[in-house]
Amino acid sequence: MVDILSWHNSEVRGVTPPDTPGGQARVTLSAGAVLRGSEGATFKSGLHGFIKPLELVFDQAQLIGPIGECLGGIAQGELRLASMRAQSATQIPLPWRCMERLTLSLQFRNGSVLQIEASSAYCKPSDDARFIESYAC
Questions:
Q1: How many helical (H) and strand (E) elements, i.e. helices and strands, does the chain have?
Q2: Beta bridge partners of 47
Q3: How much is the pTM?
């Protein structure tokens, strides 16, 4: 079973900035939009749904943007890795671990934009996270 998290249509419950310079930042998703399928699943062959809840953790993080306004639906997102400057990712596999410098830009439906720069990051669904199938047409 493979879950692919899409920034688009995910819902942010809250953003926690680092409590110390160079500390960890967290983005808590009340619902992470995912495509669930077997190895090699395509956009058309997978099962669309949401994983609730889900948390992304960023090490040595710096946040740029109006953190208090960065809530709700994500209109689009873009992940850039230091090693791949010409490419960006709008999706990541779960569980996910990135051990290199990265920048994640999230644009919210309310118009707010959050940029996170970090030395590494990870996202692993917790044991109590559950998948809910989407019935959208």
A1: 0, 12
A2: 36
A3: 0.89
Tokens 């873009």 map to which residue? Answer: 78
- Residue-wise pLDDT for 45-88, tens only, equals 678 899 999 999 999 999 999 999 999 999 999 999 988 766 67
Q: What is the mean pLDDT of the chain?
A: 90
Q: Answer for the pair 95, 124: CB distance below 8 angstroms, yes or no.
A: yes
- Tracing tokens 């990870």 back to the chain, one arrives at 122
Beta strands in the chain (DSSP E): 2-16, 25-37, 47-52, 54-59, 62-64, 72-81, 91-94, 96-98, 102-108, 113-118, 120-123, 130-133
Q: Are 116 and 61 in contact (CB under 8 A)?
A: yes
pLDDT value at 117 more than 70: yes
Task: For residues 50 and 13, give the distance between their C-alpha atoms in angstroms, rounded to a whole number.
Answer: 14
